[in-house]
C-alpha cells in the first residue's frame, strides 16, 4: 500500500511528542505491508463517508481515506479527543 501524507498531516505530525512520532513509523510500516493488520485497529469514522482511522497508541490516531486500491491518503494525526473534531 502506498501512503501519501498531506501538508496538514505533516504539520500535525511535527507537533506530536517524539515518542509518538517513533511509534507512528512502526504502525505506518504495518499499514504499508498489510493495511488489514488487526494491530492497527482500523475503524470507519462515523459521520464521514470513506474516512477511516488507525491507532498509533491507545490515545493517538491517524485519519485517512483510500484514493484507490493501492494508495491511502493520510490527512490528520492527533490525540483521539482532538482528531475527530
Question: Can you offer a commentary on this structure?
Answer:
InterPro entries: RelE/ParE_toxin_dom_sf (IPR035093). This is Type II toxin-antitoxin system RelE/ParE family toxin. It is a single chain. With 85 residues, the protein is an alpha+beta fold. The protein has 3 helices and 5 strands; from the N terminus they run E-H-H-E-E-E-E-H. It has helices at residues 7-14, 18-33, 80-83; strands at 2-5, 43-44, 52-55, 60-68, 71-79. It has a 5-stranded mixed sheet with strand order 1-5-4-3-2. The radius of gyration is 12 Å and the shape is globular.
Topology:
Layout: E1 2-5, H1 7-14, H2 18-33, E2 43-44, E3 52-55, E4 60-68, E5 71-79, H3 80-83
Parallel strand pairs: 1-5
Antiparallel strand pairs: 2-3, 3-4, 4-5
Summary tags:
five-stranded mixed β-sheet; YaeB-like fold; 85 residues; single chain; alpha+beta; 3 helices
Brief summary of the model shown:
The protein is an alpha+beta fold. The protein has helices at 7-14, 18-33, 80-83, and strands spanning 2-5, 43-44, 52-55, 60-68, 71-79.
